[in-house]
Amino acid sequence: MKFLKPFLLLFLLVTSIFAAFYLHSKFTKHRVYIFAMEEEFKKYKPMIEKIEKRTLNPVQIEKNLPYKLFYDKVYIAISQEGCDAAAYVTHDLLARFNVSEIINIGSCGGRKNRVKIEDIILVSKIYDSDFFVPKKLKEPFVIVNEFNILQGLFKTREGVLGSGDQFVMSDANLPAEVDIVDMEAYSIQFVADRFKVPVYFIKIVSDYLDYNQFKSEILEHKIH
Q1: What is the full DSSP assignment across 48-102?
Q2: Which residues pair with 32 in a beta bridge?
Q3: Which helix (H) or strand (E) covers residue 158, if one does?
Q4: pLDDT for 73-100, tens place per residue?
Q5: Domains of the chain
Q6: 143 vs 81: which has the higher pLDDT
Q7: Comparing C-alpha atoms, which of 188, 121, 105, 194 is closest to residue 161?
Q8: Is the whole model's pTM more than 0.85, yes or no?
């Protein structure tokens, strides 16, 4: 019995820690950041730190998940590219944690006559840009930015986003008001809308929708 006491105390300690973490995650509201790629997270980490007004040292948690999840008073999830991955991660996070809001930060393509490279866009409306989706499902989401989380931190502008799994090489098939494109936002908003959790989309223009440039790059790749 004497030898069992240390193990019992250790068991109770570990159980208490897990219970405390569970209760904290369930009953304390947390902000969640979603990135498509870990490279984007590393690149835009200074932006999060300005939003949070502190230095972040996130630690990866729950390593058995099919996506990477980090925590440092906020959750940071790496979904991987595409609508399905983004939808899965968003649903999993909202089902398991008490989320106050989601902030999706990432690079995007833009229409050359609408935006400039490195413009920071706060998304005000999202269209599903997948061409095979029936028109009745293509009603855009209107994003109400109740507060500008980047107020005074960065120079920003509002823009309309086209989002879908189709890789957009040209803007010919996009709705006229679309300024930028990505591959995750519509799915994130679609899922979050079911949970009635607000989402804020911050997109940084990294390239233009240029079909001729795309063809040249493919040709150059084949030659080399």
Answers
A1: HHHHHTS----EEE-TTSSSEEEESSSEEEE--SSHHHHHHHHHHHHHHS-EEEE
A2: 75, 102
A3: strand 156-163
A4: 999 999 999 999 999 999 999 999 999 9
A5: 29-223 (3.40.50.1580)
A6: 81
A7: 121
A8: no
